[in-house]
Amino acid sequence: MGRLVRRSRTTQGADEPDLASDQALRAAYRAHGPELYRFALRQLRDDGGAQDVVQEVFLRAWRSADRFDPNIASLRVWLFAIARHVVVDEIRRSGARPARAFGLAMEETSGAKGIADNGFDEQKMTAWLIEEALSRISPEHRTALVETYFRGRPHAEVAAEQGVPTGTLRSRLFYGLKSLRVVMEEMGVEP
């Protein structure tokens, strides 16, 4: 396999996009953004996650614009290579988040994953228990937990959406987790 050769901007040809410029980056986004989004959406099955992937792809492309070499691959191929890495990073990160594991933030994948030998799907049962427990706490606490913890949205964004100060949202998270713990104990679920 060939070695990637770094080229300076001064050696780029006239027909090569200079992704360090806003105009070229916008043109690349218009040309390849929707396709990258569909790729990420197919992989993650999460609209917000797919949008984050596309944003990260173009951020990384902009940061490493000097590494793009059209003699090695087209811009499309290079962007998709970056997208594959970003998707893998997102999957690894989401694997560490309980919401992903419980199936609340993304659709359940089919197959033997999570199914015990006796056919019992522990992952679906856990998701059901969490959803049931969430339905038993106040709507304000539920919304705060789902939006920030399970969907991974920033506190400031969720607070602005709900029309409350960030401190109030953090308080709702604290008391929401306490309430959720109590409800799950009442349901007989051990933490």
TrEMBL record:
InterPro entries cross-referenced by the UniProt entry: RNA_pol_sigma-70-like (IPR039425), RNA_pol_sigma-70_dom (IPR014284), RNA_pol_sigma70_r2 (IPR007627), RNA_pol_sigma70_r4 (IPR007630), RNA_pol_sigma_r2 (IPR013325), RNA_pol_sigma_r3/r4-like (IPR013324), WH-like_DNA-bd_sf (IPR036388)
Say yes or no: keyword Ribonucleoprotein present: no
Location of the RNA polymerase sigma-70 region domain: 29-95, 133-181
Work out whether the entry's keyword set contains Nucleotide-binding.
Answer: no
Keywords in alphabetical order, please. DNA-binding, Sigma factor, Transcription, Transcription regulation
Similarity comment: Belongs to the sigma-70 factor family. ECF subfamily.
Concerning PANTHER family, the annotation shows:
ECF RNA POLYMERASE SIGMA FACTOR SIGL, RNA POLYMERASE ECF-TYPE SIGMA FACTO
In Swiss-Prot or TrEMBL terms, this protein is called Sigma-70 family RNA polymerase sigma factor
